[in-house]
User: What shape does this take?
Amino acid sequence: MSGGHRRPHPDGGVTRRGLLGLAGLGVASSAGVFGMWKAASRETPLAVSGTPTSTPSAPTPTPAPFSGADPTRLGGTVPFTAGKAMLGSYLGLDGMTYPEAVKLRRGQIGRDQRITHVFYAWEDPLPDRIEGKPKKSVPMVSWRGPKYGEILDGDADDLIAAAARRLRDLDQPALLRWGWEMNGDWYRWGGARNDQDTEGYVKCFRYLRKIFDDEGAENVSWVWSPNWNSSPRQDWNRVDAYYPGDDFVDWVGISGYNLHRETPETLFDPIYRKYAARRPIMITEVGSKDYGGTTKADWIRQLTAYVEQRPAIGGVVWFDTDTHPSYPEHWRLDSVPDAAAAYREMAGNERFSG
Assistant: This one.
């Protein structure tokens, strides 16, 4: 999950099975392992706003959505639908298998998630099935990366091709979010861990997509997904320096959490303003701390209003878990009853019926 500055796990993270993706396969403890290598600090964030309220925010000035794109091709094989945002989650609840957690949420919010978010290590087989996934839910696979040279030297070609065939065999449209939050300094595939070589990230993204295309994984929509702010905050680490290009990206994603009282505008508007005219936007990781009282419910309602006012947003994916060891406040949507009620309202809102 994401916030402001974060210290990486000292060894760069676990590398074998035991990641979040296993929650999608029915293993309840995987999110706790994920938290070990996605550690967050308590340092002052790069941008902090006032206390969120439920007052709707003003629309962001932006070019007309998709003025530079063919509207019939937006989103690739997971198409963008105007006026309809898909609402989904990463779902990992303590003491519950993934199918059990899905059943619980269905009863609480009155519907299934439309995006099933799972995480996988670079070396692990990607899923060709996800046990317990709602039938109409689209998988979003967040796939870790290695250092850039391990891709570009060709030694990983067989691994990449096998991954492509696995996702192809899902036999349904799927979202692939490779190498997310590359503008942070906490992952080995980030520019900061690769000699500030932002162009190397671009080359890797394009390299992977070519192999997937060659393997016939035409059901895959590609999600490019930076963090809401960059660390380090230096010119070489600009978000746009990592952009692979419109020909390689189907969805522009963004990670952002209300960790230090940030508003949705603070978290998401910079990416929205930069890319909404070109590609559909997906909030690929989002959650909110509870500051007491109705603060978490208020923030969820503020997020609802924010998405209603920004037509290029086609997906919102909540980080719905209580197993993240770095955070005593649980990200799960029902950590307090009024937050669950606010989330149910969002799930029932026509804007989120994609």
